[in-house]
């Protein structure tokens, strides 16, 4: 899938990925982590990305 992002969209995607990474692996309470994992796993249908995979995705987007 190829998409085109304008600079604001690009910045928002990167910010969202970094926020996801921060909340999933660093600073979130259990309830927040559960909600985030639900979203990141598409309701449990896929395995969420690891912190390393999020880093790789950010690098690919940049």
Task: Please outline what is shown here.
With 62 residues, the protein is mainly alpha-helical.
Q: Which regions have little confidence, pLDDT < 50, spanning 5+ residues?
A: none
* Count of beta strands: 0
Percent range for β-strand residues:
under 5%
* Oligomeric state of this protein: single chain
Which key terms come to mind for this protein?
3 helices; globular; single chain; mainly alpha; 62 residues
Notes on the structure:
The chain has 62 residues and is mainly alpha-helical. Helix content is 66%, strand content 0%. It contains three helices and no strands. It has helices at residues 7-25, 30-40, 51-61. The longest helix is centred in the N-terminal third of the chain and has 19 residues, at 7-25. The mean pLDDT is 88.
Secondary-structure blueprint of this entry?
Blueprint lengths: L6 H19 L4 H11 L10 H11 L1
